[in-house]
Amino acid sequence: MEPTTHLIYNVTNKLTEAIHIDWLNWMRQHHIPAVLATQCFFKATILRLKGVDDEEGPTYAIQYHAAREADYERYLMHFSTALRRETLDKWGDQLLAFRTVMEVVN
């Protein structure tokens, strides 16, 4: 069951059209399962941004839900560097990513 108050670690990715389908498949089959396997997050959601300029390629947001801030901090301390490096090594400058953290307050 999803906690009512939790954190969302949001990673927004602007892709080139050339990698769009391969990146999406890689995220679904490899990267998101690897992030969830850290057990720092209980859920991940892939969203495609609408109403933005898609001329050079689409923009996606991946939202990882952490039950506690300590889980997110553990992810940063032990896992994020290697997972970010893997993404950069695979896709290089074909994507631009930025990250935000939000608190759900329902």
Tally of DSSP β-strands: 4
The arrangement of helices and strands along the chain is EHEEHHE
Number of helices: 3
Beta-strand residue fraction: 25-35%
> How many strands, what sense, and barrel or not for the largest sheet?
4 strands, antiparallel
Helix % is: 25-40%
Structural class: alpha+beta
- The 3D shape can be described as globular
Biggest sheet: strand arrangement: 2-3-1-4
What distance lies between the first and last C-alpha atoms, to the nearest angstrom? 14 Å
Low-confidence stretches: none
Overall mean pLDDT score?
94
Output the radius of gyration: 14 Å
Characterization of this structure:
This protein has 106 residues and is of the alpha+beta class. The protein has three helices and four strands; from the N terminus they run βαββααβ. Strands 2-3-1-4 form a four-stranded antiparallel sheet. It is globular.
Question: Secondary-structure blueprint of this entry?
Answer:
Elements: E1 5-15, H1 20-37, E2 43-48, E3 59-66, H2 69-78, H3 80-91, E4 95-105
Antiparallel strand pairs: 1-3, 1-4, 2-3
